[in-house]
Amino acid sequence: MIPPPGNDSAPTLNAVEHTRWFTEEVHPHERSLRSYLQGTFPQVGDIDDVVQESYLRTLRARASQPIRSARAFLFTVARRLALDTLRHEKASPIDGVAQLETLRVIDDVADVAENVGRRERISIMGDAIAALPVRCRAVFVLHKIKGLSRRETAAQLGLAERTVEIQTANAIRRCARYLQRRGVEELFEHAAK
C-alpha cells in the first residue's frame, strides 16, 4: 500500500525504490560503460568523473520521470558528458603556469615550422579517428593506439577477433581517405625519408 502524500514514510519508500532501481538497473552496466568510454573517448582524462556524473544525472532524471532503458539512458548521458569534457578541454587547452621561466621556448625557426606542421597533422589524424563510427573507433583506439592484441581488444569490447580485424582495416582505410582529402600524405615527415 502506498502511503498518502504528506506521510513521513513516503520519502523512505521512494528512496528505497530509487536505490533498488539504481542497484538493479544502472550499476550492473558500470564495467561496460567504463570500457565504452575508454575505447571511444581515450582523450578524456578522468573516466571516473564521467561515470559518477552520469550516475548522478541518471538518478536525477529518474526522480522526475520514468526511464524505459536505464542502460541506454546511462550511455547517452555518459557520451554527452564525455563530448562536453572534450569540447571544454579543446576550448581551453592551456593550463596555468606558475613560473613563466619554466616554459621552454624554441628559437630555431625551422624547428618551429616543423613542430607546427607535425601538430597540425596529428590534429587532423585525431579528427579522422573522431569521425570513425563508434565501434570502429573503439576497436581502432584499443588495438592500434593503446596496443592491445586482437584477442584483448575483442574480449574488452565483447566482439569476435575477426570483427576486430575487419573494423581495424576499415578504420585504417577511412582514416587514410580522411587524411588524403585534407592533403596529408605522410603523418610524419621522417616516414617519407
Walk me through this protein's architecture.
The radius of gyration is 23 Å and the shape is elongated. By secondary structure, the protein is an all-alpha fold. The chain is built from 9 helices and no strands. The chain has helices spanning 10-26, 30-40, 47-64, 70-91, 109-130, 134-145, 150-157, 161-181, 189-192. The chain folds into 2 domains: 10-90; 110-192, Winged helix-like DNA-binding domain superfamily/Winged helix DNA-binding domain (Arc Repressor Mutant, subunit A, Orthogonal Bundle). Mean pLDDT is 78; it is low at 1-11 and 188-193.
Would you kindly provide a brief summary of this structure?
Helices cover 70% and strands 0% of the residues.
